[in-house]
Design a protein that fits this description.
Among the domains are: about 80 residues; about 200 residues, Peptidase S8/S53 domain (Rossmann fold), CATH 3.40.50.200. Helices cover about 30% and strands about 20% of the residues. It is built from twelve helices and 17 strands. The strands form five sheets. It has a six-stranded parallel β-sheet with strand order 10-11-9-12-14-15, with helices on both faces. The longest helix has 28 residues.
């Protein structure tokens, strides 16, 4: 993934800029609502390091001393704002990573120490890992690569083909709010650009008689049923960036009991007014419920009404006098009922929601990919970055198993929400993490994948 998906280098003063952006951006309002919107208070594990406590303390002291000497700065003027461990499995590298902030200037420094105790250049490490990945897998996702080893040459499998997109520019509004008309024009322009980008490959696949199951409107991504030989042929095309295995996801978080102190936000006049929310699931919402406004369905011919989706809808905008929804003032919900949890069907429902004005996309389904990015991670991350939408995803129910947060909440710009046991009280003091809630974060060499605004209260 490139810089567009939000991977950043923490060697400059990022904190102040981010804070200003959050204060000014409309997304800040959406995030305040959404963090509590689906699953109550979040739990996010701050570190997943295997280093011993003594080793961490030693590296911590060394990094402070290094910055002090190289920048002629007293150690008392510095504070460690993040630290942890990053693993590069293909090149067998393990790094201690830290971010140190100058408390006076606000400047942030990133430092990395290998297992031999040497300071290393992170870009060199990343370049070596990327080169080894390409040597082993080329443009194929590792799981797809392994699957192809056991397939016959004529056997077919559904894949997601991500195209290069360097010539498709991100729209740049002139600050502040934009009108619905301007936003509609921006989205129309994006759809046209992606359709043009995808046409050449779609024509190529169609001419060979292959089935195209979906072509995305808001990302350069095409799903198709292809034999092994065709997949290998596509991996050599210059207009193909990556090829992913297609997945079927499973529902997550079948219940939730919010104790998120929403009244604090409501008292400031923030109730979700004017912000459309879409519930993206396989089933539909029971809009006949007297406490829900009459919304609309992606698949109106077969709503496939489910209790899970209806419960989520109630958490979002129930008008019950006692059990009021977090964003009870929001417009009627969009039920993006995809019918299945296949990735191409989910994307179709998601894009319907975007076309109908959804600003927030709620997702409580997933698949454990062992912290490897899937096409859905990349797609939804792209939707946030490129189309200014807010995407919220359940962390998953793998707490008693692998512990991994599930795809597609591995995207850099998405909000991942864990689950807590609130002991049936409104107080936070007795809250604990629900034992089945996933907690292992994606590995990041910059230790910036834990979202502090979700973790801290």
């Amino acid at each position: 993934m490139g810089a567009e998906e939000g991977r950043f280098k923490c060697t400059k003063n990022l904190g102040g800029d981010v804070e200003k952006m959050m204060k000014k951006s409309r997304i800040a309002l959406e995030v305040m609502l959404v963090v509590a919107l689906l699953f109550g208070v979040a739990f996010v594990q701050a570190m997943g390091t295997e280093a011993t406590e003594a080793g961490i303390l030693s590296n911590r002291d060394r990094t402070l001393e290094y910055i002090s000497q190289t920048h002629d700065m007293p150690e008392e003027q510095m504070t460690i704002i993040n630290e942890g461990e990053a693993n590069y499995p293909l090149t067998n590298q393990k790094l201690y990573c830290t971010k140190i902030m100058d408390k006076k200037s606000g400047e942030v420094y990133g430092l990395y120490i290998d297992e031999d105790g040497d300071f290393v250049d992170i870009k060199t490490i990343e370049d070596k890992e990327e080169a080894e990945y390409f040597r082993r897998y080329g443009k194929l996702e590792p799981e797809l690569y392994e699957r192809l080893q056991d397939m016959r040459s004529d056997e077919k499998i559904k894949v997601g083909i991500w195209l290069t997109s360097g010539d498709i520019n991100k729209p740049k509004p002139d600050g502040g709010e934009i009108s619905e008309e301007v936003e509609s024009e921006m989205l129309t322009s994006k759809r046209s650009a992606y359709a043009l980008k995808e046409k050449t490959l779609m024509d190529f696949l169609s001419a060979k008689g292959f089935e195209i199951t979906y072509a995305c409107q808001y990302a350069p991504l095409i799903f198709a049923e292809l034999p092994k030989d065709a997949i290998m042929e596509l991996s050599n095309r210059p207009d193909v960036d990556a090829i992913y295995i297609s997945r079927t996801y499973e529902p997550e978080l079948n219940s939730a009991a919010p104790t998120e102190k929403a009244n604090v936000v409501w008292n400031r006049g923030i109730t979700g007014t004017g912000i459309k929310v879409a519930v993206v699931e396989d089933g539909g919402i029971a809009f006949a419920n007297s406490y829900l406004a009459d919304g609309s369905y992606f698949n109106s011919a077969n709503p496939n009404i489910q209790s899970h989706e209806t419960a989520i809808a109630g958490i979002i905008e129930s008008t019950h006098s006692t059990y009021k929804g977090i964003a009870y003032g929001a417009p009627a919900l969009l039920s993006a009922n995809a019918q299945t949890l296949d990735d191409d069907d989910i994307i179709g429902a998601t894009e319907w929601a975007i076309n109908n004005g959804a600003r927030i996309l709620s997702n409580s389904w997933g698949s454990d990919t062992n912290l490897q990015l899937s096409s859905m991670d990349r797609y939804l991350d792209h939707v946030v970055w490129s189309n200014y939408r807010t995407v919220v995803k359940s962390a998953g129910n793998k707490g008693t198993g692998s512990g991994n947060v599930t795809s597609p909440c591995l995207g850099y710009n998405m909000i991942t929400i864990g689950a807590i046991d609130d002991k049936d009280t409104s107080s936070w003091s007795d809250d604990i993490m629900w034992s089945k809630s996933s907690y292992k974060d994606p590995i990041s060499p910059h230790n910036d994948r834990v979202k502090k605004m979700v973790q801290e209260r």
